[in-house]
Amino acid sequence: MRCLSAATSAPASAGKKAWRRCAATPSSKACDYAPADVVTQFEKESGYKVEVTLSNNEEMISKLRATGGAGFDLAQPSQDRITGPQQEFGIYKAMDVSKLKADLFIGSMLDATKKNTTLDGKVYGVPHIWGTEGLVVNTKLTKMNDYTDLCRADVKGKVSMRLKRPTLISFAFAAGKDPFALYNNPTAYTALMEDVAKTLTACKGNVKFYWDNKDQLLNGMRAGEVVGALMWDTGGWKLNSEDADIKFIAPKSGATGWIDTFAIPAKGRNDEAAYAWINFNMRPEIAARVAKSAGNFTASKGADQLMEGKLKAQFAESFNDAALKNIKWYPAVPAGLEAIEGRILDRIKAAN
Prior knowledge:
Number of helices: 13
Shape: globular
Distance between the termini: 65 Å
Number of domains: 2
CATH topology of the largest domain: D-Maltodextrin-Binding Protein, domain 2
């Protein structure tokens, strides 16, 4: 029997970037990025048997490291978890992009992912599932179009955000800077984060609470205690399903975006099956079913038009073509960067 040992991804919760991963075992249950009906159709069309199991990003990298990249024919790490592990452990093999049906992908997303997963001129990943973070706004109570609107005087005590690195990144872009361009310049990056810290410290009086728990923020928005927040897209769409006045807005300076990819392990034994699975999943009618299962959209061009019901309309309202092209995709994080950000966040937290 021909077999595709697929390492597929699954979202941890609505709107939150997934850290669970599927790795292959014969007895496992198909996860959200590989719903059972999609697996069944692929098996019937291709003749391959797909095996799927759950793992997490760190465990998957650890397993591939231990085996030198063996055990799976396909993996789905996030795009910022490819070049670093590849440089250090050599756990992936370069992709043969000629075997991919590039016209099935959203062009800007494919280009961004290829750029962020390229090492020594070779591409190691292409996009599959994605999500963003931007503004969730109660449009009946206020209007906002960029992150800095959370710091306006008229919304004092009525906004929320996380004290996490995405907030630093978002406010850097809102200031007209490109933090990703400074990733490999610790001195310049630190200086930029210092400037962002000043903005966020001055903004503390506007913050009703710094949210850690999704439900805390959703309930604050529902009650009208919070009129604007920095949050995930699917959280905003969930609220919009309950109250049409609450909307997820892609900020003027760009929503920040994460992407879970397709990558091929270094010692995968069935590359042809892996490429067949990738191309199958990028077909719009298949991708729409995967998106429904996962709760996030895919990199398949046109799949959003095949989505059913409210989510399709919400996506269209939040992301026109310009907003989609303006998403700031997270690149790989260099060593030491999060330590810089941690010090900045601690300083903001401690400030009066």
